[in-house]
């Protein structure tokens, strides 16, 4: 007898960006990590967790972390939930607000993990197509959705929508609207203020991108106390390590360092967008720490991906429509950008 559930057997697993082997020398621009390290105080906080303390469980409620995040976001600690990356937060959201057979929605293309999570939980998936232009974003056809995920800024395309549109979306959908703001610190606007006036809006944040803590996996949900209280019942106990909690608290307090890093990344993003345009390629407007670059054809895009990969420059290629004629390129350092532009010129000349 095969004990594997049939729906799991048919599941399409989430495909992360290519990870180089330990010690392999590459320029890694395929997973939207921050090219700069976290502030030195984060390393001090990690070192302060003594070897003896590691034998003890962490605070199951992540109370210091929730308080630090609440201070940054201007809310109460009871309005914040901490998770092992925003991916765990997304799973908690579905376990809290949706049951087997319920319908969940999202824009497509956006973060493909929504599909995987929905399939794991035996939910009906209701995608709404999206164009490159956020001005053409339409409301989903169905209002009867228990959860609707809005990646804002969108990944992999990079555009963001204004809070006014999210207000319309929240009024249209009968369930919870989750504004997934993993890249919001790089954007011109965000939807965090909406949780004060729109009862069915929840916002998720990540410390992986702007805060340079992708290796520690820290995510947050921010919303009305009554929703966070229910999500906390579903959360795995001891879900964040002592080291992750300590490092995240310090990173959140170092707001000047954060803004300096963001400014550097935005400056490089605009430089890269300009130089890609000078190469004759179409580069979408981005509010994130990456750019989505359109090539003349899917063959040209996949060929450029292979060309760069052979030369140790990792970018992200999505073979499915409507992304198959583009590459998503994370913003790196200035030196990495020099190398990327040089190699892109090479692939266009080959």
Give a description of the structure.
37% of the residues lie in helices and 15% in strands. The protein has 350 residues and is an alpha/beta fold. The strands form three sheets. The chain has a seven-stranded mixed beta sheet with strand order 2-8-7-6-5-3-4, sandwiched between helices. Strands 9-10-13-12 form a four-stranded antiparallel beta sheet. Strand 9 and strand 10 (290-294) form a beta hairpin. The protein starts with 5 loop residues before the first helix and ends with a helix.
Mind sketching the topology for me?
Blueprint: H1 6-9, E1 27-28, H2 40-48, H3 63-73, E2 80-83, H4 85-97, E3 103-108, H5 113-120, E4 124-129, E5 147-151, H6 163-172, E6 176-180, E7 201-206, E8 219-222, H7 225-234, H8 242-253, H9 255-278, E9 282-283, E10 290-294, H10 298-310, E11 313-314, E12 316-317, E13 326-330, H11 334-349
Parallel strand pairs: 1-11, 3-4, 3-5, 5-6, 6-7
Antiparallel strand pairs: 2-8, 7-8, 9-10, 10-13, 12-13
Helix pairs in contact: 2-8, 3-8, 4-5, 4-7, 10-11
